[in-house]
Write a structure and sequence with these properties.
Blueprint: H1 2-19, E1 26-35, E2 46-49, E3 56-59, E4 65-72, E5 74-81, E6 88-95, E7 101-107, E8 137-140, H2 142-147, H3 155-159, E9 165-167, E10 175-177, E11 185-189, E12 192-193, E13 198-199, E14 210-211, E15 221-224, E16 238-242, E17 253-259, E18 262-272, E19 277-287, H4 289-293, E20 306-317, E21 323-337, E22 357-375, E23 380-400, E24 406-428, E25 433-454, E26 459-484, E27 487-498, E28 503-516, E29 520-531, H5 535-538, E30 542-543, E31 549-550, E32 559-573, E33 576-593, E34 615-635, E35 638-652, E36 658-660, E37 667-678, E38 689-701, E39 705-706, H6 711-717, E40 730-731, E41 735-747, E42 752-760, E43 768-774, E44 779-784, E45 789-797
Parallel strand pairs: 1-7, 11-16
Antiparallel strand pairs: 1-4, 2-3, 2-5, 5-6, 8-15, 9-10, 11-12, 13-14, 15-16, 17-18, 17-45, 18-19, 19-20, 20-21, 21-22, 22-23, 23-24, 24-25, 25-26, 26-27, 27-28, 28-29, 29-32, 30-31, 32-33, 33-34, 34-35, 35-36, 35-37, 37-38, 38-41, 39-40, 41-42, 42-45, 43-44
Length: 798
């Protein structure tokens, strides 16, 4: 550890010496300004750097582009104004010496226009990129995912700090939204619904231990927790609508990053200066071997996770044929749990492995796509998306006997593929009305191969070799009616059809927002939402006595939910915001056992997914609660966030009895704060600008619910037998975790550097995760979540 930090310190010193030989710490701000609803460029827009004397700024050209040079680095704010449009305020964005700041600004036309120039009130900071989202939605910045303590540069872990959201456990980034299963979340990247974008993620899940999504390539994006617009289908709990940024279209820039978890390199720059086409690419290779050597426990025992991923985007704007972009994301991960070579009698069970087996696991995920945006006229544009994606989980399991010997037992491969074609037309009829109509067709492929080792054959015998395909068709229409600047009504309908069994769902959505007083608003939203089951539920096969196979679950319908939400928002000051939301969700047609018991797929997650061979849509659930947010936006280097959620989550299985769900924690409190300290900002002869950044976070939440173990039956069976009749009726003690992040930043003339220490669970609190049964001792064992988990990272941008 000491040698690693010493090496990083030497590198930091050398860079500071070589690049900090000038006091002229300035950078370029540039980008494009377009109409929010039509995507048309806006020429003649005034973009001013706030607080500069003499005033620094620029006007956009005929294509909407602007460029402001020699802006002092640090925190800067922009004022963007245009006749007939609401003035945009872009506040407290970080401008560094190593990278030009590129902004894509969307302006909203005023409904009540007058003939003289009027400077509008500041735009609501909670407004989303998708203007059809009325309620239970917010935009997040890439800086937030990098800044929040404990987030690990992961958008899922970042979002767990928002009201209504909680993590399922520390080891994975599953997020529980309003008591729903993490598997109800929809991931969307560049307009395409994508498979689980996490390393070591299981099929049908939405989370995993490490995210493939690289926040160095992401742009500001939307996160939604309920009653979302009609263009989002096949989701029950929430939506991550992620956007990738385009590369710098004028200058080549590079990023290098090294830490205890691996290495990363990124590059971007122009392909053609004339057309402003660009490339953006990032590769990461990681092995946690360095952390294992330091004795840091990340929940996998002695097993060392290895993973690598690649992300890219190529952007090609044209004068006559619209804008083309090619994007992609892919990753490979593998891990092996070897228990046959050690004595596990008194060893604590790890979060992922099982002391009874040697397990070899590998995961592959990839997505690539082409998007084409074409502006037909000043009121209408279209967008076409073609994409392909796939995910594969494979594993080999060996039985470990008491004498340490092993026997080959099982070999499985599970593969899903998806081909997507999406097209929509957006029409701005006038300043009051905007309509969007779209269609999405997804061809879904499935393969499952399951085999066991047969000693007499000296090889594997295939038990299942199942494959199939289906199409999920979605059509939607959305209408936005701006009655006035202060009263907006959004509505729409989503229709889904699954060709596998002809399941259908017609889903109305509506939301209204009323702005009044000084920075206050009231909002209400409703949506009917549905979600198909994961493919291996439909294609699961049961072997009959005569040797034939049947698919008992093939005719399962969508699981559905009504979402009702009310919200009050108050911009108390320019940088302080209060928000309260209350909601009720009624889930129906949930998948439960064919025979009366308390089983339900509503309790599934990435580390707990139990499937039966005969299920039906006869279950239900209820989620309701209140959420409060008090947020201090970044100002003078300081920010703060307090969120709380008080909720209840219940379900009924085929027994028709009300039970708490696995995610019924009842409450969550989060407190975050951070401060950026300039060390030598006023020193005239400084060769570089230096900063210390401190971020802290604390979470207190209701304890994890679990299924009790029947010790008597477990002793007879020599393995865990769970008391399913009392599932989730008990829970562990309440959860507490405190995180701290400290970073040291150096800004030279052309190079930015940062060395960060991010310590998760700094108090080393032992938060229980689940109860395990040790067959060797005949006792229950509490498997704890991650203890103190430090991360060290060095990053340079030039």
């Amino acid at each position: 550890m000491e040698s690693f930090i010493r090496t990083i310190s030497i590198v930091t010193f050398l860079f500071a010496w070589n690049v900090g030989m000038s006091q002229n710490f300035t950078q370029v701000i540039k980008g494009r300004v377009i109409d929010q609803q039509t995507q048309n460029p806006l020429p003649g827009v005034a973009v001013i750097v706030k607080g500069t004397d003499p005033v620094q700024g620029a006007s956009t050209d005929m294509d909407g582009y602007f460029k402001i040079e020699k802006v002092k680095i640090g925190r800067v704010s922009l004022i963007v104004s245009y006749l007939g449009y609401h003035t945009q305020y872009v506040d407290n964005i970080s401008l560094s010496s190593g990278k030009e700041l590129i902004l894509n600004i969307k302006m909203e036309e005023e409904v009540n226009q007058i003939n003289e120039v009027v400077v509008s009130a500041e735009k609501d900071k909670s407004e989303t990129i998708n203007t059809m989202a009325t309620i239970s939605a917010r935009t997040f910045s890439v800086e937030e995912s990098q800044r929040y303590a404990g987030a690990r540069n992961d958008v899922s872990r970042m979002a767990a700090n928002y009201a209504g959201v909680n993590t399922a456990n520390d080891a994975v980034n599953d997020i529980v939204i309003r008591g729903n299963s993490p598997n109800g979340l929809l991931w969307r990247l560049e307009g395409v619904d994508i498979p689980n974008p996490n390393h070591f993620g299981t099929m049908g899940a939405t989370g995993g231990p490490v995210s493939m999504l690289n926040n160095n390539l992401l742009s500001n994006s939307d996160f939604m927790t309920g009653a979302f617009p009609a263009e989002y289908g096949n989701a029950l709990s929430g939506v991550f609508d992620l956007k990738m940024r385009s590369g710098n279209y004028e200058k080549h820039e590079f990023l290098a990053q090294v830490g205890l978890n691996g290495f990363e390199f990124g590059a971007e720059g122009p392909i053609s200066l004339k057309s402003r086409s660009s490339y953006l690419i990032n590769y990461r290779y990681s092995t946690l071997g360095a952390m294992a050597a330091l004795g840091i426990d990340f929940g996998t025992g002695t097993a060392i996770p290895k993973y690598q991923d690649l992300s890219f985007k190529f952007n090609y704007p044209t004068k006559k044929f619209g804008n083309f972009s090619i994007f992609g994301l892919g990753g490979i991960s593998a891990i092996s749990f070897i228990n046959s070579t050690k004595d596990t009698t008194n060893e604590e069970q790890s979060m992922y492995g099982d002391n009874r087996y040697d397990i070899y696991s590998k995961n592959i995920m990839g997505v690539a796509g082409l998007t084409h945006t074409y502006i037909i006229n000043e009121k209408t544009y279209t967008k076409l998306i073609l994409a392909g994606s796939g995910i594969e989980n494979s594993g080999i399991l060996d039985t470990v006997y008491g004498n340490g010997n092993t026997a080959l037992y099982m070999d499985q491969t599970l593969r899903n593929t998806q081909l997507t074609a999406s097209f929509y037309v957006n029409k701005k009829i006038n300043v009051h009305h905007n309509v969007r109509v779209g269609i999405i067709d997804k061809n879904l492929g499935y393969t499952f191969i399951d085999s066991v080792y047969v000693a007499s054959l000296n090889g594997f015998q295939t038990l299942f070799n199942s494959s199939g395909s289906s199409n999920l068709l979605q059509t939607y229409i959305e209408w936005q009616y701006k009655i006035t600047d202060n009263l907006i009504f959004n509505s729409g309908v989503n229709y889904m059809h699954l060709t596998l069994n002809n399941s259908n769902s017609i889903e109305p959505r509506a939301g209204i927002k009323y702005l009044f007083g000084k920075g206050q608003s009231l909002s209400a939203g409703y949506g009917l939402h549905s979600m198909m089951q994961t493919l291996f539920v439909y294609f699961n096969e049961t072997r009959l006595d005569n040797g034939t196979y049947v698919r008992n679950n093939e005719n399962l319908d969508f699981t559905k939910a009504h979402h009702f939400v009310l919200a009050y928002d108050n911009q108390l000051t320019k940088t302080l915001r209060f928000k309260a939301e209350t909601y009720y969700q009624h889930v129906f047609d949930a998948v439960v056992n064919q025979y009366p018991d308390n089983y339900s797929l509503l309790n599934s997650s990435s580390i707990s997914f139990v499937m039966l061979d005969s299920m039906k849509n006869a279950g239900s659930g209820e989620n309701y609660g209140v959420e409060l947010t008090l947020e201090k936006f970044m100002d003078k280097g300081f920010y703060g966030l307090f969120t709380t959620s008080i909720f209840k989550s219940e379900y009924k299985g085929s027994d028709k009895v009300t039970h708490p769900t696995a995610f019924d924690g009842r409450f969550v409190f989060n407190v975050l704060a951070g401060k950026e300290f300039g060390l030598n900002l006023h020193k005239e002869n400084a060769k570089s600008k230096k900063y210390i950044v401190v971020d802290a976070k604390a979470t207190y939440a209701g304890g994890q619910r679990y299924v009790p173990i029947d010790l008597e039956k477990s002793a007879q069976a020599h393995s865990a037998v769970y008391d399913n009749e009392n599932a989730y009726s008990v829970k562990f003690r309440n959860y507490f975790r405190a995180d701290l992040r400290v970073a040291y930043k150096i800004e030279g003339k052309k190079v930015s550097q940062e060395m960060a220490f991010d310590i998760q669970n700094i108090s080393n609190n032992k938060n229980p995760l689940y109860m395990n049964y040790n067959a060797k001792t005949g006792k229950e064992e509490v498997v704890n979540q991650l203890g103190l988990f430090p991360m060290v990272q060095y990053r340079v941008v030039f």
